[in-house]
Amino acid sequence: MSHVSKIKLSNITKKFVSSEMETHALQGVDFEIFSGDYVSISGPSGCGKSTLLAILGLLDTATSGQYFIGERNVSQLSVNQRASVRNEHLGFVFQSFNLIDELSVFDNVALPLRYRQVPLSDAQITQKVSACLEKVQMSHRANHKPNQLSGGQQQRIAIARALVNDPDVLLVDEPTGNLDSKNGDAVMHMLGELNKQGTTICMVTHDPRYADMAKRKLYLLDGVMADEFNLELAV
């Protein structure tokens, strides 16, 4: 693993305020993801995993603290700037697949490429999409619609779509949550293979078995980050 930092969080907090109460979802979270890393983040329901992933994915902003993607501080970007950085640097795999049923598999995977600031030619798009479908062994389904595929196949397509822009980091949210154990195991095996090929992965999961497949295991407890070495002290 190369010690080139892809993502760095420094003293990240997230506070939700309502008229009745103040909730501290994240409290001083610090961690780095390096090139070639495979990190799992787990913890009990309500521990802050989804909040952390939303901040990592620039879908939400922290209350305080610094967030760097590479050398760039992305803590204070506008909504449009966040969308641009997200499309350029981050790939997303969601529990619910989030594929568009009206589009073919090919067009679903191509979607992020059509939002690039620098447009690609049709030939470049075809080359990139084809390469990603091959990576997830779904080239033979390019002309199908998502609703013609099994859940496991849909998740493979979602992974291909997340990879198509060559992201710095693949953010994976409960990738097996909507799958049976056989398909879940197959998707997790695929993520492991992608990591061996060089893809940097940060995965949120509630399943300890899948969390253990990562190279580095991090835990969130009441909005505080603990690693596998000091978890017992934190509990």
Automatic annotation (TrEMBL):
<dbReference type="InterPro" id="IPR027417">
    <property type="entry name" value="P-loop_NTPase"/>
</dbReference>
<dbReference type="GO" id="GO:1902495">
    <property type="term" value="C:transmembrane transporter complex"/>
</dbReference>
<dbReference type="InterPro" id="IPR003593">
    <property type="entry name" value="AAA+_ATPase"/>
</dbReference>
<protein>
    <submittedName>
        <fullName>ABC transporter ATP-binding protein</fullName>
    </submittedName>
</protein>
<keyword id="KW-0067">ATP-binding</keyword>
<dbReference type="GO" id="GO:0005524">
    <property type="term" value="F:ATP binding"/>
</dbReference>
<keyword id="KW-0547">Nucleotide-binding</keyword>
<keyword id="KW-0813">Transport</keyword>
<dbReference type="InterPro" id="IPR003439">
    <property type="entry name" value="ABC_transporter-like_ATP-bd"/>
</dbReference>
<dbReference type="GO" id="GO:0022857">
    <property type="term" value="F:transmembrane transporter activity"/>
</dbReference>
<feature type="domain" description="ABC transporter">
    <location>
        <begin position="7"/>
        <end position="235"/>
    </location>
</feature>
<dbReference type="InterPro" id="IPR017871">
    <property type="entry name" value="ABC_transporter-like_CS"/>
</dbReference>
<comment type="similarity">
    <text>Belongs to the ABC transporter superfamily. Macrolide exporter (TC 3.A.1.122) family.</text>
</comment>
<dbReference type="Pfam" id="PF00005">
    <property type="entry name" value="ABC_tran"/>
</dbReference>
<dbReference type="GO" id="GO:0016887">
    <property type="term" value="F:ATP hydrolysis activity"/>
</dbReference>
<dbReference type="InterPro" id="IPR017911">
    <property type="entry name" value="MacB-like_ATP-bd"/>
</dbReference>
